[in-house]
Amino acid sequence: MNGYGGHLTDRYPAFSMDADDSYPVRLEAEYVEEANRLTTFFRYLLSIPHFIVLWFLGIVAYFAYWALTLVVIFTGKPHKGLFDFLVGYNRWSARANCYYWLLTDEYPPFSMD
Q: Which residue ranges make up each domain of the chain?
C-alpha cells in the first residue's frame, strides 16, 4: 500500500499476504537465524541518528509528495527528481525500520540509494 499511496506505482496492491513478484514495489527481508545479542541491546540507540535525519527528510518528503501529486494531475506523468527523492526516502526509511524492528542485523547506511 505504501508504494501505491506514495505515487511509486500506479498498480493497486493485491489483497493478499503472499509474495507477489509481479508487483513493482516490494520489501524483502531475510530471516536472521542467529541475531547478534550485543547489537540487539543497543539497536534502539543506534537507530536514533537515522530517525532524526529521517524526521527532517520526512518533512521534505511530505511537500515533495504533494508537489508530485500536482505535477501528475497537471502533466500526466511524474517528475523524475521528485519521484527519485520519494523512492530514496522510502528505501532509507524501510531499511532503518527493518533494523529497528529486529528484521535484519545489517546496520543501514546513511544513504537514499
A: 1-6+53-113
